[in-house]
């Protein structure tokens, strides 16, 4: 396998893993998209809900009671899938580092290094699929919640759209998938 291709896949995998981690840790999976005069900006995430006052920029966050408390299914499933994707992507990166041709680990056995690169690609692909499922699951649930309110002519004054954390999760998952295909 070409060393340049391996290094490219590693760089993409590293960047994508960082995006996945950032998406998991940040709290703007859903953002209010009210078209009227906004006084505050509200983001909902996997771990807490934050409100930013638009006039003075003060940000206040309410953490969810407990990780073990009853939460909506979309939060529990997305948390589980994103954390699993993060762990798998990290394991794939560690395996890939050891399997790179430019690393002197197991230099005398190129067959094992090649298998490590292929294994890292499989692990990365699995993590990317889980991350993509988690991100899309959350996004579809946000869309269905909004569509249900619209179809029942219910307007609560605020409706939500996909936040930047959701987009980061999708981008990180797709980057991990591309890196796994390169490997």
Could you characterize what this model shows?
The protein has 183 residues and is α+β, with helices and mostly antiparallel strands. It has one domain: Butyryl-CoA Dehydrogenase, subunit A, domain 3. The protein is built from 4 helices and 5 strands, in the order αββββααβα. It has helices at 3-25, 73-99, 110-151, 164-182; strands at 30-32, 40-44, 48-53, 59-63, 160-162. A hairpin with a 5-residue loop joins β3 and β4 (59-63). α2 (73-99) packs antiparallel against α3 (110-151). The longest helix is centred in the last third of the chain and has 42 residues, at 110-151. The radius of gyration is 20 Å and the shape is elongated. Pfam families: PMP22_Claudin. Residues 1-33 form the signal peptide. This is Claudin. Claudins function as major constituents of the tight junction complexes that regulate the permeability of epithelia. Keywords: Cell junction, Cell membrane, Membrane, Signal, Tight junction, Transmembrane, Transmembrane helix.
């Amino acid at each position: 396998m070409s060393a340049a291709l391996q290094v490219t896949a590693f760089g993409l995998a590293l960047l994508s893993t960082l995006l996945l981690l950032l998406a998991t840790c940040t709290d703007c999976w859903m953002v209010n998209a009210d078209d009227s005069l906004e006084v505050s900006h509200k983001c909902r995430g996997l771990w807490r809900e934050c409100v930013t006052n638009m006039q003075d920029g003060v940000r206040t966050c309410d953490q969810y009671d407990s990780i073990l408390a009853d939460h909506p299914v979309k939060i529990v499933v997305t948390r589980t899938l994103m954390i699993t994707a993060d762990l798998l992507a990290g394991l794939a990166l560690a395996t890939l580092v050891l399997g790179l041709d430019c690393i002197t680990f197991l230099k005398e056995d190129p067959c094992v290094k090649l298998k490590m690169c292929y294994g890292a690609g499989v692990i990365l692909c699995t993590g990317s699929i889980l991350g993509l499922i988690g991100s899309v699951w959350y996004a579809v649930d946000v869309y269905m919640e909004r569509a249900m309110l619209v179809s029942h002519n219910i307007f609560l004054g605020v409706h939500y759209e996909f936040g930047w954390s959701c987009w980061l999760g999708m981008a990180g998952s797709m980057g991990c998938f591309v890196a796994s295909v390169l490997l």
